[in-house]
Amino acid sequence: MTGDRELLQVTLDVWHPDCWGIISTNEVGSSLVGHGVAVTGSSAYERCTIHGESPEHIAQAIEVAKDVQFIETIERLADSTCTPVSRSSIGHATQDVFIEYDAADGMGAAFFERGFVLDGTYRIDGGLETWELLVYAPRRRFQRTLAEIGRDRDAEITVRRLSPVETTTQTQSSPATELTACQREAFELARSRGYYAWPRDVSVKALAADLDVSKATFLEHLRKAEAKLLGSE
User: Fold this and answer.
1) pLDDT tens, 138-154?
2) Is 0.85 topped by the overall pTM?
């Protein structure tokens, strides 16, 4: 049953052991921005941007990552373009890296394997991960999924924000759909018979006779339809 599903925008604060980003930001004082995760079999892949006070500072963060057991590969990317992020997370130096790790250990793989979508970027700063995600699911199932991820990854997950996403189908409607049946009938007849041509091909009296209503009644329906379609009502 899908009727109770919602498109939700979620902000999560996450801590879990053995995360190279959390260990690095704790030990070195760097920060990190992640740009997404791909999962293939037992391996997960990410592009991340490390922020530090100097190239040496970033080099220290990379060395910490190499010592983390579940990281298989970490490679510097040359001449890469960093995605803009909050000034609070930017140091004087940045470096994009590509990492491969065991999908059974990382938080990104845990989220994306369960249908969560990254809404922009995620950050690791001060030993804490912050994820911006989109989720299309019933709220109860979302809460159960978070609990499941927490158990699987031995993670502490705090929901900082949970709100429905407003879509165009929820917030906008065509003015024509707001017309009553009589208003729509009057307007469509007037348009099809040339009432809006210049010079007019038909009179209000003739149009009212076609609908078997009085001239005053026809004009009332037509004027209300015009007001709604022009956004003046």
Assistant:
1) 989 999 999 999 999 99
2) no
